[in-house]
Amino acid sequence: MRITVHLSTFDRLNPCAYAILWLDRERKQWSRESHFGLDLPSWGTLQVHDGTTQICTQRGGVPLFVLEGLDLEDSDGPFEGETGGAQWCAGRRHSAGHWYVQCIDEDTIQPESGMFADDGPSPYSAASA
């Protein structure tokens, strides 16, 4: 399952800051589709703790974002249009923002090329969206 999440309203960082991420629920990885005003790598890992999803770098560790209320381990969710608070945790300036689920794709798609560098081809690719 691929979940497209839109992150926005990080006004303390940049009034136009946003990111659109694809979350791969099964692989516990994310990839960047689009962004502005936020310094993000092209992909990383996901960690789920106590009903929150943490957007981390490829090596894990301290999260870049914490998505409050987005529980990827909940069998009933997420659902399109679901929203919640987001915390930008990277760097010296922390900032509050919001997330919302833009799209959920239940289909497995064979990639044209791999998206994640650590273990070969991903079941998703930007070309297939």
How far apart are the termini? 13 Å
The shape is: globular
Helix segment count?
A: 0
Which residue ranges are poorly predicted, with pLDDT under 50 across at least 5 consecutive positions?
120-129
- What is the percent of helical residues? under 10%
What about the largest sheet?
8 strands, antiparallel, barrel
Number of E strands: 8
How much of the polypeptide forms β-strand, as a percent range? over 45%
Radius of gyration: 14 Å
Can you tell me about this structure?
The protein has an 8-stranded antiparallel barrel with strand order 1-2-3-4-5-6-7-8. It has one domain (2-109). A hairpin with a 4-residue loop joins strand 2 and strand 3. With 129 residues, it is mainly β. Residues 120-129 have low confidence and may be disordered. It is 0% helix and 47% strand. The chain has strands at residues 2-8, 18-24, 29-36, 43-49, 52-57, 60-68, 83-88, 95-105. It is built from no helices and 8 strands.
Layout: helices, strands, pairs:
Layout: E1 2-8, E2 18-24, E3 29-36, E4 43-49, E5 52-57, E6 60-68, E7 83-88, E8 95-105
Antiparallel strand pairs: 1-2, 1-8, 2-3, 3-4, 4-5, 5-6, 6-7, 7-8
Q: Which characteristics define this entry?
A:
129 residues; mainly beta; disordered C terminus
Summarize the structure in short.
Helix content is 0%, strand content 47%.
